[in-house]
Amino acid sequence: MANVTYVNGQIAYASDLNNWSQLNGDSNTFVHPIFIPSASPGTSGAINISQADSRYAPTSGSAQYATITGSTNYAVDTGTANTYAIALIPAPAALTPGMTVGIDAIVASNTGASTLNVNGLGALPIQSAGGVALQGGELVATYGAVLRLNHGGTAWILLQTTGGSLPVKAATQTEHAVNLGQAQSDFAAIAGSATQNFNAAQAAIASEVTIFGQVFGLGQAINSGGLALSTIYTNTGTKPIAVYAVTAYASSHTVNGYIQGNLVVSNGTPSGGAGVTLLVLPGESYEITDSIAGATITSFIQQ
For residues 86 and 75, is the Cβ–Cβ distance under 8 A? Predict the structure, then answer.
């Protein structure tokens, strides 16, 4: 018959008696857990781990459970689009200015002004840091956000949002972030209209850039064929053109540029190539010459 060990009148199993372990990693020192039978109700004796687990494990809704799970300031959304709701555990008796809450698994993205109701204590508006109502797209379905109750306890301020756009107050200093409204206004002003939206303003600016380039002869077809020295040409187009010419000679020579018969630029060189550039307005004539009749033109471009 096997030997049976009793402790305080209860069987102590081998797993209890043989469970030796090192003390703080010291291979020369071992400790043994004390076998503690279940204490009788109402006694002042020690209790074992099974009793401790059953008696003192945090239960849902308790302060200990809330601390462990983070449910004191975080909960899953149970509301609808633009009307959000969460239930903290344990439920706060009242909303306190400065309290911060997290909302997760947002049910539906917001499409405009929105509210948050915490534990049925009343739906309050959600606002940007600048105190402005949400416009849409700040809260995104399945994602989350962090909010703080403002100092007056009258609105939730959106501090952080995942998947959505965080509202930004209009910048007033050089290091401030610029919001879309300011960007639209600035771009539209450059484009010549204070009412254009961002995309239209971008298109208008692109057009202005193109026009600007064309005013200075950029972006136009290059004509480099059939042009000769000492020949008068006319800009027959509706935009100014840039004329660039290079001549070459073995010894000293000077290349000259004329507009409307007037010498406007000269460039001399001891030998080799020399070039000039003219900006010719619509309807004006222009001519390139060289001081040496034997000079050759190596590049003659009107653009």
Answer: yes
Total Cβ atoms within 10 A of residue 138: 20
As averages over each run of 10 residues, the pLDDT of the chain (303 residues) reads 47 48 53 54 59 59 54 86 94 92 95 96 94 93 95 94 87 81 68 53 53 49 68 88 86 93 91 87 92 84 69
Q: What's the rounded Cα separation, in Å, for the pair 146 and 100? A: 7
Give the range of the structural domain holding residue 190, as residue numbers without chain letter.
180-215
Position of tokens 């539209």?
188
Query: What ranges in the chain are assigned the alpha helix state H?
Result: 14-17, 49-56, 63-69, 180-191, 198-215
The position carrying tokens 């030998």 is 271
Q: Is the CB of residue 229 less than 8 Å from the CB of residue 290?
A: yes
CA 75 distance to own-chain centroid: 26
User: Which residues, in sequence order, are CB contacts of 250 under 8 Å at separation 6+?
Assistant: 271
Separation between Cα atoms, residue 1 and residue 113, nearest integer Å: 80
For the chain, the domain total comes to 4
Does 111 lie in the same domain as 131? yes
